[in-house]
Structures are given as C-alpha cells and as structure tokens.
Structure to design on (120 residues):
C-alpha cells in the first residue's frame, strides 16, 4: 500500500527556517516525480516545488524561489523541503505528492499534510 508521511512542520518566527521531510513506502520511489504543495486557510492548494525522479531538475513557485530548496534521496525513499527566510504568508498545511513519471494520472499519492505556522 502506497504511503507518504510528512514531518517537520511547526511554529517558527518570521525569518526562521524549517525542514520538511516526506517518507515514502509501498511504491518504487525512484519512478515518481515528487512535489510539495501547500494550502492556506481559504485558499486553493498551490504547487510550491517539484523535483524530478533523478533529482536532476527542480522547479519552484515564484513566491518561494531563492528561499526554498527541494531534494530527494532515492536510496532512502525520502524527499525534503528546506525552507529559510520564512514569512507569515508561508503559513499553510504542506503536502508532499508523488506522481508517476509515465502514468501521472493513474499513479499519484498524497501525504496527510504537516502544518507550518510562521508567526511572531
């Protein structure tokens, strides 16, 4: 059974840092593009960062470029999102998502989400 489990969320002051992790199990992790989404109260879910299967290419939303960095370790079946210079507008529930590189519509999985709150 495919599973994604996020961890690392919490409360941080503006300008602070957090590192989110996503542990995958039950599927061949290296065949999946990994994405991080976030959803703030009253807003639609937003794609924040993407990393390709090999980790060779990444992409970011304009709102987080230069502050967030996505990485993955295919040997450990994990993906991470390093967040620095956090702002109150980064407050949201963060979700990791795995999407098959060949059959993205057929095979896609979501984690349960982890809350990130940026506040003084």
């Amino acid at each position: 059974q495919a599973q994604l489990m996020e961890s690392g969320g919490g409360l941080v002051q503006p300008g602070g840092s957090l590192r989110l992790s996503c542990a995958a199990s039950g599927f061949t992790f290296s065949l999946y593009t990994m994405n991080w989404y976030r959803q703030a109260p009253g807003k639609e879910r937003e794609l924040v960062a993407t990393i390709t299967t090999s980790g060779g290419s990444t992409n970011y939303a304009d709102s987080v470029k230069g502050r967030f960095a996505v990485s993955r370790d295919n040997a450990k079946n994990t993906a991470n999102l390093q967040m620095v210079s956090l702002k109150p507008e980064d407050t949201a529930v963060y979700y990791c998502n795995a999407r098959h590189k060949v059959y993205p519509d057929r095979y896609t999985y979501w984690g349960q989400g982890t809350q990130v709150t940026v506040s003084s």
The radius of gyration is 14 Å. The mean pLDDT is 97.
